[in-house]
Amino acid sequence: MTSNAATPFPVGLTTLHWGEADAHPRALLLHGLTSAGGTWWQVASALAAGGWSVTAPDLRGHGGSPRTLRYRLADYAADVLALDPPARSTVTASTSTSAAGRPWDLVVGHSLGGAVATVAAQAHQDWTRALLLLDPVLSMPDDQHDAVIADLLGDLDHLDADDLLRANPRWHTEDAVQKVTAARVVSPFVVERTVRDNVGWNLEPVAARIRSHVRVLGADPQLGASFTAAEGDRLSAASPDSFSFAVVEGAGHSIHRDDPDRVVAEARALIAP
C-alpha cells in the first residue's frame, strides 16, 4: 500500500527538552537521517546551562515518533512546523499569561534536519528568527539515490560504538552510544523512502528565498562534506544580507559531535542582542 496524496499531513513527534520551559532564547534542534533527538545531548546541555530552552524531536520514522507511509521533505517539515516553542510566562501584578509560541529564536538542523529546516523556514517565514544548518543536504541528484541508500543501509548493518569511536576520534563516548541506539530503531524502509520520496531534491533555490538569517557550517571537504563551497558561494551571492557560510576545519559531517563548542558558540552569536 502506498500513498500518493499531495497534501502534507503532520504526525505528533516525540520530543526531548533541556532547560526551563519558559526560558529564553528558545531553540529547536533537528537531527539527521538514522539519528534521533537524544544525539543533540552535548549542544542541548550547553545551551540549557546558558539559560536557553531547548527542544529536540525525533523526526517521523525515528526514535519514538510515528512511522508513516511517506517521507517527503514537505511531510517532515509539516511535523516540525506543528511544534510550537514552550510559551514564555508573563506575570503582572494582576494576571499571569502565556506568550504566543512562535517564533523559535533559533532552529539548528543537521544533514536531513538541515534540509527539513530549510523547507519549513521557506514555507513559513515567521517560523524562526534564524537558522543554523550543520552540513545540510540541500541537494541529492536522482542518479545517486541507489548509491546513497546502499551506503546508509550498509552503515545500519554494521554500526558499532567502538568502531564509531575509532573512526571519529573527536566524538565523546556518549555520542557513539546515542548514534547506535538511534540507528537501531530506524528501518530500511524509512531510509529508502526518505531518499526515493524526494525526487528532484534541490533546495538551493528554496534556501535563497528564506528571509530569516541562515548560517551554514560546512564539514571539512577532506572529511566528506555534504554541503559544498560552491553551494555556499552561490547562496552568498543570491542572499548577501541573510546568508553566511563557514567551513569547520577538522570536522566531519557530524559537526555537532566533532566540535560541539563551535556549534554552541555559533548559536549564541546568531541570536546575540
Jot down its keywords.
alpha/beta, globular, Rossmann fold, single chain, 273 residues, 37% helix
What would you note in describing this structure?
This protein has helices at 41-49, 73-81, 112-123, 145-157, 161-167, 173-183, 188-196, 204-208, 229-238, 255-258, 260-270; strands at 15-18, 26-30, 53-57, 89-91, 96-98, 106-110, 130-134, 139-140, 201-202, 213-219, 243-248. The termini are far apart. Residues 89-100 have low confidence and may be disordered. The chain has 273 residues and is α/β, with parallel strands linked by helices. One of its GO terms (cellular component) is membrane.
Q: What name is given to the CATH topology?
A: Rossmann fold
Structural class: alpha/beta
Report the mean per-residue pLDDT as an integer.
92
Helix content: 25-40%
In spatial order, strands of the major sheet run: 1-3-2-6-7-10-11
Uncertain stretches of 5 or more adjacent residues: 89-100
The CATH superfamily appears as: Alpha/Beta hydrolase fold, catalytic domain
**In the CATH hierarchy, what is the architecture at level 2?**
3-Layer(aba) Sandwich
Main β sheet profile: 7 strands, mixed
Strand content: 15-25%
In the CATH scheme, the class would be Alpha Beta
Kindly state the number of beta strands: 11
Shape: globular
Q: How many domains in all? A: 1
Number of helices: 11
Radius of gyration: 18 Å
Question: What kind of oligomer do you see?
Answer: single chain
Distance between the termini: 51 Å
